[in-house]
Write a structure and sequence with these properties.
- The protein is mostly helical.
- It has one domain: Methane Monooxygenase Hydroxylase, Chain G, domain 1 (Up-down Bundle), CATH 1.20.58.
- It is built from three helices and no strands.
- The longest helix is centred in the middle third of the chain and has 30 residues.
- The mean pLDDT is 93.
Length: 91
């Protein structure tokens, strides 16, 4: 995923924020926080992960499926990689 290097710092910052959200969920559960608080935290973390996934999918499509310099074989490979990832996500 060398094409991600152009915005690697932003991706890493986003991932670190998600890690912080997960740590907050763990802390809330450990400290017997109110159920609704934990639910909201989990929903927020899920939204953040989905946002990250959306961004990565978009980058993949642009670089490995829709890029004008790709050969048909490269496009097919990129599409297959995306299909596998989406199927895995759907499970």
């Amino acid at each position: 995923m060398s094409h991600l290097t152009s915005h690697k710092p932003q991706l890493l910052a986003r991932i670190r924020r998600i890690a912080g959200q997960i740590a907050a969920i763990e802390k809330a559960v450990e400290s017997d926080a109110v159920c609704s608080t934990v639910l909201h935290q989990v929903a927020g973390a899920r939204g953040a992960i989905n946002g990250l996934l959306d961004e990565l999918i978009e980058d993949h499509v642009r670089e490995h499926v829709a890029h004008p310099d790709l050969t048909p074989v490269e496009r097919a490979a990129g599409a297959e990689e995306l299909i596998v990832a989406i199927r895995r996500y759907g499970k």
